Amino acid sequence: MYISHLDLARTMQRIITRAGIDIWYSEGFNPQPRLTFAVPLPVGVESNCELLDFKINSYMSCEEIAKRLSDSFPEEMKVISVYVPEQKFKNIGYIDYTINLFSSKLTEESCEIIKDLFSKECVITKKTKSGEKQVDISNYIKLVEAEKIDGGISIHTILTADNENYLNPEYFVSAIKNKLSILQDNEVNEYYTITRNNMLDLDMKGFI
Asked: What is the DSSP letter of 42?
């Protein structure tokens, strides 16, 4: 996703209007559509699981909503499912990511170094609303699997995502960059991608 979260929210507002779905608006002088996204996506991170919550003023089946949205989406976006939620977004506890690192410096040994890196204390400088502080991010990481792929390494990881313990995947990548001395000079042949695969509840089960 290479547009900001606010741009995505505005895009969805237009799509829902175009689809003719009668959603609930806030009251007051300047009514706004009540759309809520789960865990806003950082710029530059791809996603296969954006969750959007909204209310409608009159009954419409989930199947009809899905069809109308699909017909109104651009080619780059699609509806995976529409359903009546059983959980609130505050129950999201973890996010499942795939992170691919590409560099000629990465080897099979690098996979073991990455897994070992987060199996013990791993302190980074984390930016917070109150400023910068040193944080041991190993407490925010629940799974790290790494395998060698053509041109680099593919990592499957699960990071905490609740309101008090959210870990931006960029900090995860930053720790690896510093440990392996890669991706430091913005070289064309060294780059990485981050994809959000799924959101998990507090019991680490699929949220949907």
From this structure: P
Global pTM reads 0.87
Q: Is the pLDDT of residue 178 over 60?
A: yes
Burial bucket for residue 191 (CB in 10 Å: 0-12, 13-18, 19+): middle
Average pLDDT, the chain: 90
**Structure token pair of residue 197:** 């695969």
Q: Where in the chain is the domain with CATH 3.30.70?
A: 91-201
- Partners of 60 in beta bridges: none
How many alpha carbons fall within 13 Å on the CB side of residue 63?
0
pLDDT tens track for 38-69: 998 888 899 888 899 999 998 999 999 999 99
Distance of CA 147 to the CA centre of its chain: 21
Arch. (CATH architecture) of 91-201? 2-Layer Sandwich (3.30)
